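Project standup — Tuesday

K.O.: blocked on the structure for the chain from last sprint. Re-posting the sequence here as requested.
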Amino acid sequence: MSHLTHLRTFLEAYRAKSFSRAAEHLGITQPAASMHIQAVEALVGKPLFQRLPRGVEPTEAGDELARSVAPFLDGLESKIASLRPGLMKGGTVHLVGPSDFIHAQVAARLAPLMNEGFTLRFHTGAKKRIYEMLDSKQIDFAITASMPDEHSHGYAHLLTERMLLVYAPSLLERLGQQPTAEQLKQVPLIAFDEDLALVRPLWTTMFQVAPQLQAALTIPDLRIIKDLLLGGHGWSVLPDYQCADAIADGRLISPTLPNEAPVNALYLVWRKSVIKSPSLLYVRDFLLNAFH
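H.V.: unblocked you, prediction finished:
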């Protein structure tokens, strides 16, 4: 069998982080998908995935291979698909997700689709609204930080975010380079919500206890939190994609080491009927390819 078929299975498994979901997306059996992966591993001479109790995690070799082959395989498939009779690009695409993530990571990546005849409709909301819109079939795609139900939805890993403690250089005198719990308690905390959903995992990792804190200010918008931090108004915890630029140019400081940062996976989720629409399937693969 052609190595192209094996590589296509590998790439689908890489994106879905699951052999079974890859097999489902490709219309083959799970044993066949596993054989394809084993053939590619034999070809490159290295394991491409770490098998986990639930799904798989790519190895460094898997990451490297995916980066190398994805543009070529996706480009080849898109070209072949464009030559099929009856395949039409374009139409209206509805996507829902957290407003901060759409702003920082999604909108610009999907914008080129407008030049291919697509009309884009972005919707925003938290977890409850996202799943309500997905389950009521109001949207085609959703972005969520919670693991979807693989029996009712198709999904693929989109991005893994790292949560970082951040504050402005103007607070160095009060917090130092490695702030203690007591130092942080003396400086206003700016949080996404009252439950401290972003703060709690990092605080627990740093100090081995749950935070006994109350935010001085809450606002469910990471962009506003970032602006307040840049102004030196307090400290917070942000995903790395929200603050990497400000850390790089020195406008914000983060004492969090990458290997110590709590991580959170984000998924692209779609209704299973999407697989029957060549146009929506093209959008799905376009977005996934933009992240990998």
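K.O.: great, moving the ticket to review. The radius of gyration is 21 Å. The chain has a mean pLDDT of 89.
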